[in-house]
Design a protein that fits this description.
The chain is mainly alpha-helical and 138 residues long. It has two domains: 45 residues; 81 residues, Orthogonal Bundle (Arc Repressor Mutant, subunit A), CATH 1.10.10. It contains six helices and two strands. The radius of gyration is 32 Å and the shape is rod-shaped.
């Protein structure tokens, strides 16, 4: 009887050893195929999700043939305070990176006027946003 017990014991140990080796190999194969999110390039990572955007959350501004979508509510309010001329110059400069000379050519105005409108728009937006920040803090 002792011989049968040893044979059964050896058989059980052998089965467990093979099952453990098989599980180890399976885990190793899976680890070679699985890439953690932190290891993905940014462009691949961006393909894995989609963020719903609703038109109520954003406002589209047009300057010449360009369109820019602003989603930040405080920035929308600040831009609404500007004149159309200031808004056009600010959007062309800040969003589309046109120089004052390029903006002047596009709008058919002197370069100094484009520069003045841009600086006035920046001052106005900054003042508005800083005022809103103080309102938000208190």
């Amino acid at each position: 009887m002792s011989d049968q017990l040893q044979t059964f014991d050896a058989y059980c140990k052998s089965v467990l050893r093979h099952a453990a080796a098989k599980a180890y190999r399976r885990r190793k194969r899976a680890a070679a195929r699985v890439i953690p999110f932190s290891g993905l390039p940014l462009d691949e990572l961006e393909k894995l999700f989609y963020c719903d955007r609703y038109s109520v959350d954003s406002c589209i501004y047009r300057a010449l043939d360009y369109e820019v979508e602003i989603t930040e509510e405080r920035l929308q309010e600040a831009i609404e305070q500007l004149t159309k001329e200031q808004r056009d110059v600010l959007l062309l400069s800040a969003c589309f990176e046109h120089t004052d000379a390029e903006i002047a050519t596009l709008l058919d105005i002197p370069r100094s006027t484009a520069q003045y409108r841009k600086n006035a728009a920046i001052r106005s937006v900054r003042t508005y946003l800083e005022g809103k920040q103080h309102d938000h803090d208190s």
